[in-house]
Design goal:
The complex is a heterodimer of chains A (365) and B (311).
Chain A lengths: L1 H19 L1 H21 L7 E7 L4 H12 L3 E7 L2 H9 L5 E5 L3 H6 L6 E5 L4 H11 L17 E5 L8 H31 L1 H5 L6 H31 L7 H25 L3 H18 L11 H9 L1 H14 L8 H21 L6
Parallel strand pairs in A: 1-2, 1-3, 4-5
Antiparallel strand pairs in A: 3-4
Helix pairs in contact in A: 1-9, 2-7, 2-9, 7-9, 7-10, 7-11, 7-13, 9-10, 10-11, 10-13, 10-14, 13-14
Chain B lengths: L4 E10 L2 E11 L4 E5 L6 H8 L7 E6 L2 E2 L4 H7 E4 L11 H11 L4 H14 L15 H13 L5 E5 L7 H16 L3 E6 L2 H6 L2 E6 L2 E6 L1 H6 L4 E7 L2 H9 L4 E7 L2 E6 L6 H11 L4 E5 L4 H9 L8
Parallel strand pairs in B: 3-8, 3-9, 6-7, 7-8
Antiparallel strand pairs in B: 1-2, 1-4, 4-5, 9-10, 11-13, 11-14, 12-13
Helix pairs in contact in B: 4-5
The chains are: A alpha/beta (365), B alpha/beta (311).
């Protein structure tokens, strides 16, 4: 009973302090909004007027027709015209163009040869948006020629320069919930205890009857609510701005998010017991954040990663949440069908909070 | 009644540094017991060991009849601790801080509001109810800290340099509050580096490099000083200072404006004559007389070096 009173007191105090910290309040709402808008538009397929370059070595009516057709689609804007494929590559390296079209001198002969692609599309694959546009352009029909109704080979051969993977808007938004939560949840609790230590509050707090577990749980509660709020923001904005479908049950999404929030927050608490200063806590958070983003399947397909990377990824909460959110939101799976992922998150929560409680001593030495 | 604090051979090392060295303490109940010493003399470390924040490297300490290390949770419910640095929440108001502390100590709900308002009245916080601690003056913060530390009515109050950031008027009021608490039966252990504060304690331990250099009631310490105190008034105190410093029998020279306080070895039979002679030899006109020891003289005699404090 008195334990619950102490937990409530800690939670209320934490919430109050949080509410008075304008920058943090701004982060609570600002980070999810900013992230989803930024990510959302970057992966928006309906991009127009990408700067493009062309090296038209054929320079025939057919090749000029091709360039005109591409420009008419308004996706590309050809403002760089060069003579050779090398010059095209150079322009891309310098960042002057995002897409290059290379039309070889034997363009006309290639058009009728099913074994060989007629022209080449050079794509700066370091930006996923551009890669998606390339995929669209590949579908483009060859300039029509009355006697030739179809070509079995495509018009273009795709040469992807920097990015081995294609992805689409809907794949990113569900996983983005997890990325945003990792960013905010881990950081909030990572600094939570260190901050009290730095400000001198901890010296008083640990001479009171408050128990370590009570202190930890009290600190988690306000952030759980904040996490759920952020989930709602991303879901809502994802739906309104980017028409991300929700094929599964909304309750299941929140259930999965809750397990993930718990795991992320306790990870932060654990960091908080390891770090001596807020700066160290932030560095440690980044140390967790980068592998989470890279290995979780958010950026690269999990199956394509080396076994070692997969093992590491299995330990990271984000990996499990990415599977959960994609499963529920996109494939319409039920949370029960993904029980093993939920279980992994709960185990992570249990282990992390135990370690945090064990590491935290109500002493200064 | 048994002692509030009993320590035997209490020692704490940090690496190679011995912060507290073989301390024996017997602090009686319902008294103000003072630790007087410079920074680094082991005052804070000792207090932190008493409230279980640090484990002793060696020795034992009992607080209110319980082992301070093994039974620290029991001890913590019955003591109040005011840290050297303000440790309540600066972004919370007076009422919010007090309410938080009341909840953490689990004060009975029926009494909580009444105790908080009593504390507000006692420590003159009624006008500051909604003010955040971060915007308060040093004196106001300190009243708030004392109110918080006493809200659960501790039997032992540990105050670690409570008045370092406070003006003299607030310090006077603060000590009035402490005497009220003692009258109500609270034992208070206070560390300080101010002589005037030390003089107000019932009992005093002068700490020097982790050891007790002298212990007793301030008045008794001043009477029993192990040196002759000579006061010299002269026009050239700096020159006199240098001349006297070189004498083997002189333990220390402290300048107070145009006067000098000189501690002379107690084995010297006529210390005034010795000093007078030396100054005459140096051609310095002066008035020399024996005087009663101040607490600072006691401190200097006990530690053999003047107290260096940032005033």
């Amino acid at each position: 009973m008195s334990a619950w009173r102490r937990i409530k007191a800690i939670a209320a105090k934490e919430a109050r302090q949080l509410g008075r910290d304008r920058l943090t309040v701004g982060m609570v709402v600002g980070i999810p909004l900013m992230q989803i808008v930024l990510f959302g538009y970057a992966i928006n397929l309906d991009v127009r007027h990408l700067s493009a370059g062309v090296a038209d070595q054929a320079d025939t009516s057919w090749s000029r027709q091709l360039i005109a057709d591409m420009e008419a689609s308004q996706v590309l804007r050809f403002d760089t015209r060069v003579a050779t494929a090398e010059a095209l590559t150079e322009a891309m390296r310098l960042g002057e163009i995002a897409v290059g079209v290379y039309v070889p001198a034997d363009f006309e002969r290639r058009l009728v040869d099913p074994a060989r692609p007629a022209a080449q599309l050079l794509v700066d694959g370091s930006d996923p948006t551009i890669l998606n546009i390339a995929a669209q352009l590949l579908q483009m029909p060859a300039p029509s020629r009355p006697q030739q109704t179809s070509t079995t080979s495509g018009l273009f051969e795709l040469r992807n320069f920097y990015n081995p993977e294609r992805r689409s808007a809907v794949q990113i938004v569900p996983a983005l919930i997890g990325v945003i939560l990792t960013m905010t949840m881990v950081l909030f609790t990572a600094v939570a205890i260190v901050r009290e230590r730095e400000r001198g509050n901890l010296e008083l707090l640990i001479t009171t009857p408050v128990r370590t577990v009570e202190l930890m749980l009290g600190k988690l509660i306000p952030y759980i609510l904040i996490g759920l709020l952020q989930v709602s923001i991303v879901l809502l904005v994802g739906r309104l701005l980017f028409h991300v479908p929700l094929r599964g049950d909304l309750g299941d999404v929140y259930l999965a998010a809750l397990a993930f929030i718990g795991a992320s927050l306790t990870l932060g608490l654990l960091i908080s017991t390891l770090a001596r200063t807020q700066f160290q806590a932030m560095q440690l958070t980044l140390f967790i954040f980068l592998p989470s983003i890279l290995l979780s399947g958010f950026m690269f397909p999990f199956d394509g990663m080396p076994v070692v990377a997969q093992r590491i990824a299995e330990v990271l909460p984000l990996t499990h949440f990415v599977r959960l959110s994609r499963g529920i939101i996109l494939r319409g799976a039920e949370v029960g069908e993904l029980a093993s992922e939920i279980r992994a998150l709960l185990i992570f929560f249990g282990v992390a909070i135990t370690l945090a409680v064990l590491r935290f001593r109500k002493r200064l030495d | 009644m048994d002692a509030a604090v009993t320590a035997r051979g209490l020692t704490r090392r940090f690496g190679d540094v011995t912060a507290v060295d073989q301390l024996d303490l017997d602090i009686p109940r319902a008294r103000i017991y003072g630790f007087l010493g410079p920074n680094g003399s082991g005052k804070s470390t000792t207090i932190r060991m008493l409230c279980g924040l640090l484990r002793p490297t060696a020795g034992s300490v009992e607080v209110l009849g319980h082992d301070a290390t093994l039974e620290s949770e029991i001890v913590r419910r019955r003591i109040g601790y005011m840290t050297q640095r303000f440790s309540l929440y600066e972004d919370l108001s007076t009422d919010e801080n007090l309410d938080f502390i009341a909840e953490i100590y689990g004060l009975p709900r029926s009494e909580k509001q009444q105790r908080i308002s009593a504390a507000r009245r006692e420590y003159r916080l009624d006008d500051l109810r909604r003010q955040r601690a971060g915007t308060m003056s040093g004196g106001q913060r300190q009243r708030l800290a004392l109110a918080a530390a006493t809200l659960h009515r501790p039997e032992l109050l540990l105050l670690d340099e409570p008045t370092s950031a406070v003006d003299p008027q607030s310090r006077r009021e603060f000590w009035e509050s402490l005497f009220d608490l003692v009258e109500a039966g609270t034992t208070i252990l206070v560390s300080t580096h101010y002589m005037d504060e030390a003089e107000r304690c019932h009992q005093l331990a002068i700490l020097d490099r982790g050891r007790i250099a002298a212990e007793g009631a301030p008045k008794a310490l001043m009477q029993a000083i192990d040196a002759a105190v000579i006061e010299v008034s002269c026009d050239q105190p700096r020159s006199a200072h240098h001349v006297l410093e070189d004498l083997d029998q002189v333990r220390s020279v402290t300048q107070l404006g145009s006067r000098l306080h000189i501690l002379v070895d107690p084995t010297v039979s006529e210390p005034e004559a010795l000093i007078r002679q030396r100054l005459r030899d140096a051609g310095l006109a002066s008035q020399v007389e024996r005087t009663a020891a101040s607490l600072e003289d006691v401190f200097v005699a006990a530690t053999r070096k003047p107290l260096e404090v940032a005033a």
